[in-house]
Amino acid sequence: MNATGQSAVFGRRKEPHTVIIARGNEIRHFTVRPWLAAFIGSALAAIAIGYLLATSYLVLRDDLIGATTARQARMQQAYEDRISALRAQVDRITSRQLLDQQLMETKVSELLARQTQLSQRHGRLGPLLERAENDVGTVPAEDPAAAKPDKRAEVTGSINVPAQNYAVASLSADLGTADTRSFSLWSTRTDPLPSDSAADRADRLFVSINQSLKSIENDQLSRISTLADNAYKSADAIQQALQAAGLPVDSDFGKNESDVGGPLIPLDSSMIFDSKVKELDEALDTLDQLKKEARRLPLANPAPGHSVTSPFGVRTDPILGTAALHSGMDFRAPIGMAARVTAPGVVTKAGWNGGYGRMVEIDHGNGFATRYGHLSEIDVTVGEKVDAGAIIGKTGSSGRSTGPHLHYEVRHNGEAIDPLRFLTVGRKVAQYL
Fold first, then answer.
1. More confident position, 31 or 83
2. Of 110, 231, 308, 319, which residue has the fewest beta carbons closer than 10 angstroms?
3. Are 291 and 238 in contact (CB under 8 A)?
């Protein structure tokens, strides 16, 4: 089979390219196969592409370097901004914590200052309340709403200092953010919320302690005012009883003070407390003064529990049977019963005195004197000082007497006064003395 038939069956086979180079009389030819042509073409294309890339790099190198530098600068700036923001956030948190700590210390200092103030008030009120309890005693019976003076523990409202200090100190571990307002503006929310922070819990605890201290302070002021009112009521009752009987009292007490005026100047809590304490002290001074005046007067009964057999005034003389002035009161008393003085004073007479028989006369000052007649025995001497209730002798029937009894007289500047006036006043003011 010839070559032409083979090509027709298997297809035409490509023949390699022949390159002929002629130079003068010399002719050269080269046969270039397809794979070699492809290789040479690829090499030339690679060289061209590399040349173009190198040329482009040389032309665009500065722009690429500038873009890379700018991108690095932007990244560095972004990192620095982030670091600055984080530092600012840390500074804010630190500053907030310092402010919260300072606020907590301020609130704790305020609570401790108020607790110290209440403790100091307790020390000031102690002697004053003892004096009030001793001076005021029971309040007037006609005032059903009043009661005995309050006990010192109720008035002062003492605080458990260690417990309070522990409660306050426990806040320092939990306190985060807190309210910068004053106590009067602090939150009073008591219902716990899911979002409550340590500051909210601390705030409620501070408010609770503050309200407790405020309640104690208000109770102190209320109790002091009550004691002062009771003292003034007692002093007024004594004064009215003495004035009703025509007995002397201090003219300065109870003077009219309705015509007053002046600008209104509000007081803080400490000034209010001082004012209330001063008012109570003045009320007790007034009560003490009236008590002293009343106790100097012969208001007691010389023979308590014994009936009066002959009152003061005009009567039929028991011996002559004619009308006569009886200058005192006669109390039925057995022989030998103790005769007691009705007010403190000095013995001016002690012995036999005409129709009085054995008689003792006591000078009580301010022109008042009392006489005790018909005694069977005298147990004091002239010039001796005696207290109210002291025994000056024993009852009997000496002198101008028809039987054992105690003759009792009250005199003012030598003039006999009905003793019943003094006994009536004594019964009214006995609960205050």
1. 83
2. 319
3. yes
